[in-house]
Design a protein that fits this description.
With about 140 residues, this protein is of the alpha+beta class. It has one helix and nine strands; from the N terminus they run αβββββββββ. The strands form three sheets. Strands 1-8-3-6 form a four-stranded antiparallel β-sheet, with no helix packed on it.
Length: about 140
């Protein structure tokens, strides 16, 4: 009986330890969407050979990226700074540190650092293996 009580107490302590440490992590949904920032709905994705790429992009103060488009899904997380994204139709959105942007697909646009420090982005791309991450307008 003593052995059983010791095992029961040990089991309870183990459960308390596991439950207290297992739930110490915090989570926050940064983005859950079915469309890009201009409200274009994602179409059914048929990817035969998926490839995921994650880039860190730094845009200096006052600098802009080239006019370009993406032919795959990509999501940008702003780790630092303020970025304004402008489409070729002159639609604009500004995102700041800690915010997430579901990028346009198949539409030309560019990003401009509109803040007072470099913009640091972490960008996640998901598409067919070998698809270019972006295509500059000529």
């Amino acid at each position: 009986m003593r052995k059983f009580c010791k095992l029961l107490m040990l089991g309870c302590l183990l459960i308390l330890f596991v439950t207290n440490t297992a739930y110490s992590a915090q989570k926050e949904v940064l983005l859950k969407t079915t469309s890009t920032w201009d409200k274009s709905e994602y179409k059914t994705l048929k990817i035969k050979k998926p490839e995921v790429t994650v880039l860190k992009i730094v845009i200096g103060k006052g600098e802009s990226l080239a006019l370009h488009k993406h032919n795959l899904v990509n999501i940008a997380y702003v780790k630092q700074g303020t970025l304004t994204v402008i489409s070729d139709k002159n639609d604009k959105i500004t995102i700041k540190e800690g915010e997430v942007l579901p990028e346009l697909i198949g539409k030309y646009h560019y990003g401009k650092n509109t803040g007072d420090k470099p913009v640091e982005l972490i960008v996640f791309y998901i598409g067919e293996k070998g698809t270019p991450l972006s295509v500059n307008k000529k």
